[in-house]
């Protein structure tokens, strides 16, 4: 038997653990480093934005949660607790607004199962920024490789991949940071298979972001148990009653896709990784981006517009065709509303989904002259399904239009600029942090690989109990999360 055949005969968990532990910082290419650093920065921003959302606040106030002594910060507070509890709270906050980055392959959000965990664990253990980034990269590799093996049957069946697959990324990241070694890493991954959970039936409720907090906490718990000698079945993935056959079902997965060309190229450097520039349904982003480009190129003023035609890819319109949103959550799923906002204000921000912002008279006028139709040239079965065209008719008789074939968030060929990243980060962070801390935090995260101790970053995430949040930053509407149709993933 060849060495390759012998390797393939090993349990899936064992093979995966070997790859996780063999991964070195030198394998993080310059592109992967840049993308990882950006995604981590973005995740910290949206975590701060979600720190005072109702789901996070209730969790912090629940007896027994975050009561344990420890070194790990609950972001946006002065409160420190165990790494497990900090991961639970910060992880829930990170997904509270559904403003976090996403992966078109994962069918979910790759960073939130990892970043809150890694910051909590790194602060507890005194890890460096470089070690944290390397652990993050191997965590993303793990969860997206698993997604290649099981999706989209896994997603369509009703599982929430951010949690059910993200937990394996969480274990891989934690195990790498802890340097557990192959045997204990395999055990931790095997434990995680029994802790994986998250049902799409709870989308649109506070329980969706709780999936993420619990996913990160469970992943860290699995790693900490394995570190101390806990055991688990190493055949837990391929067993007839194991993860793949229970969560997916026979014939609906291909485990070898986990291992094919592992880390070559790295998943974090792929064009399928996208940031959310706008705090609304990801399926609206290509149309918003085109509207912003038209406004910039032609100096459009909303009161000079006579009519708007929006032509997203048909799969993007099915769940975003909400001509007259009546609630803040409906506004997040209205391509008409968000494009009207982009035209009027040149931006789409968190405040646009608070209170009665969707009833702004200028926006109402634009909605009355807007139509949205599936693009006739963008086929449902096309490889690229994230395109849109925007056509604006002006009162002076001119018509301007802009089209993009595929935009999976802002990444790949259309990365967010430093200014755009700052706009989003500051809008998020100032909802929790004193304004004077925001710019230093942003700058420190932009050079995270040079940080010798993560405590240098977390002290900028700490807020005095005497700090009062600006009234205009308080969210008036209940936290909403994104509901998805049964067979089409919505990031």
TrEMBL record:
It comes from Bosea lathyri. Residues 472-491 are annotated as: Disordered. This is 2-methylcitrate dehydratase PrpD. Residues 477-491 have a biased composition (Low complexity). It comes from the Bacteria. GO terms for molecular function: lyase activity. The lineage of its organism: Bacteria, Pseudomonadati, Pseudomonadota, Alphaproteobacteria, Hyphomicrobiales. SUPFAM superfamilies: 2-methylcitrate dehydratase PrpD. Coiled coil: none annotated. Belongs to the PrpD family.
